[in-house]
From TrEMBL:
Belongs to the ferrochelatase family. Its EC number is 4.98.1.1. Fe(2+) binds at residues 210, 291. One of its GO terms (molecular function) is lyase activity. It comes from Parerythrobacter lacustris. SUPFAM superfamilies: Chelatase. This is Ferrochelatase. Keywords: Cytoplasm, Heme biosynthesis, Iron, Lyase, Metal-binding, Porphyrin biosynthesis. PANTHER family: FERROCHELATASE (PTHR11108), FERROCHELATASE, MITOCHONDRIAL (PTHR11108:SF1). Pathway: Porphyrin-containing compound metabolism; protoheme biosynthesis; protoheme from protoporphyrin-IX: step 1/1. The keyword Metal-binding applies. It is found in: Cytoplasm. The keyword GTP-binding does not apply. It holds the Pfam family Ferrochelatase.
Amino acid sequence: MTLTPQNLPADHPPVLSCRIGVLLVNLGTPDAPDAKSVKTYLREFLSDKRVVEIPSLIWQPILRGIILNTRPKRSAEAYAKVWGEKGSPLAVITSQQAEALQARLGDQAIVRWAMRYGEPSIAREMQALMVAGCDRILFAPLYPQYSGATNATAVDRLGDWLRETRWQPAVRTLPPYYDDPVHIAALAEDTARQLDALDFDPEVLLLSFHGMPLRTLELGDPYHCHCRKTARLLEEALARPGLRVVTSFQSRFGRAKWLEPATDATIELEAANGTKRMAVAMPGFSADCLETLEEIAMEGRETLLEAGGEHYAALACLNTGEPGMAMLEQIIRRELSGWI
Ligand SMILES: C=CC1=C(C)c2cc3[nH]c(cc4nc(cc5[nH]c(cc1n2)c(C)c5CCC(=O)O)C(CCC(=O)O)=C4C)c(C)c3C=C
Ligand SMILES: [Fe+2]
Ligand SMILES: [Fe+2]
């Protein structure tokens, strides 16, 4: 492992070689769509105090005694429905985003990707960037809307690694980009293209964001506001007066009150009120994953059709499409300014 072009003595510590690194970060996903792997993943994810804000003394017995004995089997069945040849969609798409961004940035930066839970870990990938000679690293959680349960916990993990590191790189973190005009334009372009390609004309465009416990809003988490503003700006940018845009929150977990309205209840209510044709976009997810491909594309369709709807389409996330990658390149280049 030679890090520098200099002729250093064999026992000299590695010297960094002034490269710029970018680490794309997403949530994490099980290693395989089986109950054992899902249990390992959920144990780490749901033990995170940023995700479940209940004192450990109360939460851990519930998690270990009930949830980890029931949910993994059910979730593994859901994962199996969306698992691809190359693995979990979230991991596959995040790796492809890193590859596409690397191609766009060329030799100006080294791009890698990591997951907050599971592999490839943040520590491993920060280390890999250091070994590749990066002394300046942009840490980029790919969550457009900020929340403690996503952005903050990823940065906490980065902090854990920094704490253990003697010779630290300079680090910047990517701010939330939900209302960035470049992000809104990418969402509008991608959504419009997908709407135009449908073989039906939707009456309603549902914008479904991942939910959060209501208490997090009361405690000052900006996530709810970021979602609402994303929805307002996207609706304005789409500028389709004939299309009714509705916002909802999906993936409710546990018994506490979550942000409302809930996506499943909203789909049911729309159908009950006579909506026949619905499209759903998920502007909080930078990559398709279990929550978009199973919960929304599959379960959501069943919900609408069973309640009397006739046409349903779940739109793809920005993923590696041109609008999404051009947006990512632009915001990453901006955050790297002064470095490249
Ligand atoms: C208390 C529980 C949860 C909170 C809070 C939460 C917030 C949150 N999650 C995402 C994005 C994703 N979540 C995903 C899966 C997922 N989420 C929860 C629970 C909470 N999420 C669970 C238990 C699971 C696992 C699946 C299941 O058993 O239902 C995923 C998909 C991961 C994948 O492997 O594909 C994403 C992405 C956000 C953005 C968020 C808060 C803003
Ligand atoms: Fe989640
Ligand atoms: Fe879900």
